[in-house]
Amino acid sequence: MKIVSLLGSPRKKGNSTQLAGIVTSTLKEKGNSVTEYFLNELVFKGCQACMACKGKSESCVVKDDLAPVLEAVKEADVIMMATPVYWGEISAQLKSFIDRTYSYLTPGFMTEEIKHRLPKGKKLVFIQSQGAPQELYADVFERYNAFFKMLNYFDETHLLRGCELNELGQAMKRDDLVTRAKEIAEKLL
User: I want to staple 36 with a disulfide (CB 3.0 to 4.6 A). Which of 5, 23, 86, 124 is the partner?
Assistant: First the structure.
């Protein structure tokens, strides 16, 4: 199984990145291929609304560091998106990636049954860390997942949400989150 892990935190050892590491370690131990992309190290733009992917090309025509990531996602069986919540939203790095997935959509995605150019059967693991309590920002994943469902991007989705993570490395000290990360990895196998 091929896994692409998109690490959206600007901190290499941030809580969302560490939780993603638990999932990927478990998957690697079982012989799966994992490719990680630390989005903050890449030089790329968000979607340029050029609409080339709806006419002259079937992929994004912007040539930057995100181009090979978009190709890797096409080939992957599992996509992992890990992000902290800043100002009630996913990180700018992950948001820019998601905006660029517009290139996966077919020209008639709004009205036609086949909405995207991705192979079927993909799974999503969405990892969200936040300093705020659980009562806040539960809508973040729900909003993005509603779009993913409408577009039929994924056959299966899993959420790992860590709340009240105010210090670097705090997620690794939370047995509930470590256990949940391992459970999600096992479900993917």
Answer: 5
